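Hello,

Our lab assistant flagged a job as stuck in the queue for most of the afternoon. It eventually completed. Since we weren't sure the result was trustworthy after the delay, we are filing this so someone can double-check. Below is the sequence as submitted and the structure that was eventually returned. Let us know if re-running is recommended.
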Amino acid sequence: MTQEIQEKASITDLGVARNVLHDEAAGLTRLAEVLDESFVAALDIMSSATGRVIVSGMGKSGHIANKIAATLASTGTPAQYVNAGEASHGDLGMITKQDVLLALSNSGETLELSDMVAHTKINEIPLISITGCPGSSLDKAGDVSLVLPEIKEACPLNLAPTTSTTAMLALGDALAVALLERQGFSPENFSALHPGGQLGRRFVKVSDVMHRGDAVPLVSAETPMAEALIIMTNKSFGCVGITDAEGALSGIVTDGDLRRHMDKGLLNQSAGDVMTESPRTVGPNELAAAALKMMNKDERPVTALFVLEDNRPVGILHIHDLLRAGIV
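-- returned structure --
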């Protein structure tokens, strides 16, 4: 293949790709325009369920249903994917009277869904349908039906599920996020459901990784520096906190403070004489990522932060702790 032919093929390929993306974006824009109160009714049913949202479909719609179930579950709405084909062979038992069925079919005539639909009617289980065909069997069967607008598939034959499955996926995301907002789902809730991977690390709290109790290097302001140095060495944080008579943190002695007082008779001074007042501190409920930013604040980075509650030290956080937790 000559260079000229390769360049023409590349231009054609890029043009096809851009057309696909434009077609699918146009489909989502159209979906947003036609969204109506049926969407709110679907949310009402899903949020009032005492069981789970069961999501199902076949073929490409089944793949989308599986992802919607995962998104719902990860954002605070108990959900489960059930394969429509397997449902007719015993998996209908996964769907209880406390659940809601969210069924996906672009044609609205998917045969494998018929037994699931019948199961919902017999057991008075709410059915929410997502379909691209108004007046279809699934549309008519739904207690609430979310009908996709007439949108062009990105496939040049207008046959392969492309824009339609993208629209179903986006509609599932819209349901999940709207439910999240209704429930007041917090970053802490999200963290509890995502303990692994990068998402989990983003929500690690200071209290999860800090050192507590006897591990925290603390002395009073009257403590001789000879004694304070021993505590600094034994605790291995490169610093010692100075507390007042009420137990509040009043200052910190770091390696830098030691160097600055070397020529001033360091060992003849007290910890209060050497300390730096008003050190950077952090609360136990702060995110560890925020603590890292605080350590690197301004042009004077620090490697450790005392953790305070009511101005009293309850722990200490070292940058090595953040490294071990994967925050850095």
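-- support follow-up --
The delay was a queue issue, not a problem with the job. The result is valid. The chain is about 45% helix and 15% strand. The chain has two domains: 3-185, 206-324.
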